[in-house]
Amino acid sequence: MKSRWDDLEALLAVVDAGGFTAAAERLSTSTARLSRAVSRLEKRLETTLVHRTTRRLDITEEGEAFIAQARQALGTLETAEEALTVRRREPAGRLRVDAATPFLLHQIVPHLAEFHAAYPKVRLELTTHETNIDLIEQRTDVAIRIGRLEDSTLHARPLGHSRRRLVASPAYLERYGTPRHVEDLAHHVLLGFTHLTQLNRWPIGDGRTIQPTLASSSGEALLQMAEADVGIACLADFLTRGACQAGRLTVVLDDATHERHEPIQAVYYRNTALHGRINAFLDFFADRLTL
């Protein structure tokens, strides 16, 4: 395909220069090479485009029509190449990002206005799933995943680590008392997950799996339940930090909680066309995450 465009450019150079010799001098190539390029075009088109003489170059009627369309085609190609170059410099187009609801709400949404101001031509589409998804099946460009990765076909960019802690509201603790030992949890309302049962293995004591008194499939729902004085939840710092700083939640059994840090990574398939958008998104948010 490239040689076909090269042959077109050779023909236009010959026509613009008024002959093969002048065109060869302008392009720092040989007249023989230009002649072969034009001959290939004529053979492919099964028509004569130019009549070659020692003194002048005569363009046939078919050549005139073809050259006019060739100029238009090359102009369109150059415009497309220039637009793509600019697009790579200035990210533009759709970018579909998936993350668990709590991560999206507490780490991405607060910075969306700033991101849009910085990259107004990037059209973000945000989706939420509480479990890992198939990026191709869900037409997703980037997914934020928490925990160890299993799919080695994906490119992964580390974003940080997450630590889980036990939290409850001051009002709940005033009503039911603050647990001082792990064994005290047996007398409390424990909030856990319905589907992500591995998250019901709390990082305390021997890493026991709790039996939730109340459960939800959503970490965000558990956060709201804890803030509403319902019980004790074990949630990631990136989810509870704001509530703890505002005094709506209090960390309990901190000394008995193991420091287990789960990796947080952005995963995606390598795609040259999306490279600029993905990098812009990840570079921007990597500096703003509070994990």
Automatic annotation (TrEMBL):
Family: Belongs to the LysR transcriptional regulatory family.
The keyword DNA-binding is annotated on this UniProt entry: yes
Start and end residues of each HTH lysR-type domain: 1-60
The protein, known as: Transcriptional regulator, LysR family
An annotated Gene Ontology molecular function: DNA-binding transcription factor activity
UniProt KW Transcription regulation keyword: yes
Any one Gene Ontology BP term: DNA-templated transcription
Keywords: DNA-binding, Transcription, Transcription regulation
Lineage summary: Bacteria, Pseudomonadati, Pseudomonadota, Gammaproteobacteria, Oceanospirillales
Alphabetical list of Pfam families matching this protein: HTH_1, LysR_substrate
